[in-house]
UniProtKB/TrEMBL annotation:
It comes from Vibrio renipiscarius. Belongs to the ArsC family. Transmembrane segments: none annotated. This is ArsC family transcriptional regulator. Signal peptide: none annotated.
Length: 115
């Protein structure tokens, strides 16, 4: 089973998800958006699998700092461009397990994925 977690290491939700995976002996690779980057192709895969509206973290400071114009004019194309430019705006974590993407972290969600 190949597992990859995408995110930024100092995020609290990422820390909880990593802890859960480690405690349940799930080996995983971690893709750090800040160090390893993200490109349009990867963002397209995330958005096709999860829906672009779900991938945008509207509760984070990066999103809140956008202009009112940017927020109101948000569509799939503009969102994907912004997400590549500002990966901190991507909802975290995105987990890729055996060809399937999963978004966010809840212990019961992970328990179901790795059952």
């Amino acid at each position: 089973m190949k597992v990859t977690m995408y995110g930024i290491p100092n995020c609290d939700t990422i820390k909880k998800a990593k802890k859960w995976l480690t405690e349940h002996n799930v080996e995983f690779d971690f893709h750090d958006y800040r160090k390893q980057g993200i490109d349009a192709e990867m963002m397209t895969q995330f958005c096709q699998a999860l829906g672009w509206e779900n991938v945008v973290n509207k509760r984070g400071t990066t999103f809140r700092q956008l202009s009112q114009e940017q927020k109101e004019g948000l569509n799939e194309q503009s969102a994907m461009t912004l997400l590549v430019e500002q990966p901190a705006m991507i909802k975290r974590p995105i987990l890729f397990v055996d060809g399937q993407y999963h978004l966010g972290f809840k212990a019961d969600q992970y328990a179901a994925v790795f059952a």
